[in-house]
Design a protein that fits this description.
Elements lengths: L1 E6 L4 H13 L3 E4 L10 H13 L5 E6 L3 H7 L7 E3 L3 H11 L3 E5 L5 H13 L6 H16 L1
Helix pairs in contact: 1-5, 2-3, 4-5
């Protein structure tokens, strides 16, 4: 699985930590920045990850900012992107299993590093169940996207 990483300055340290973790775990990583802790704008990084996913450059994305809220809002503006804020392992795997979430959003200022690593791995190890009820609900979301 290829994972696309992105963060603003407030998520830079966790993005670096995730890059190391995922490489060690055998994942292929595409790091789209930020590449330092100088102030940067989270919508730009969310766009980079969302577009890369749309273009098939990776299978899933992880975005990090201070709270996770900003990157989630920005990423969800892109067709086919389902970005979820997850600050616990249950939400991280359930979001994939039921909602086919393809971008995990984490807040570096909200979750400690050990738990953040567990959340990332829970997200990446989960698979969409393809249960009829979930497929039906995703079709409704896609229909909403297609209207706008």
């Amino acid at each position: 699985m290829k994972v696309i990483l992105g963060s603003d300055h407030a998520g830079y340290r966790y993005k670096q930590m995730f890059s190391e973790l995922l490489t060690t775990e055998g994942y292929e990583v595409l790091d789209l920045g930020a590449f330092n802790e100088e102030a940067s704008d989270y919508p730009d990084h969310a766009e980079d990850v969302a577009v890369a996913l749309q273009e098939g450059k990776g299978d899933r994305g992880i975005l990090v900012c201070g709270s996770a809220v900003g990157v989630s809002i920005a990423a969800n503006k892109f067709k086919g992107i389902r970005a979820g804020v997850c600050h616990d392992t249950y939400s991280a795997h359930q979001a994939v299993e039921h909602d086919d979430v393809n971008v995990l959003c984490l807040g570096e200022r909200v979750v400690g590093p050990a738990l953040a690593k567990e959340i990332v791995l829970s997200f990446l190890k989960a698979s969409f169940t393809n249960e009829t009820r979930h497929v039906k609900r995703l079709a409704k979301i896609t229909a909403i996207e297609d209207q706008w």
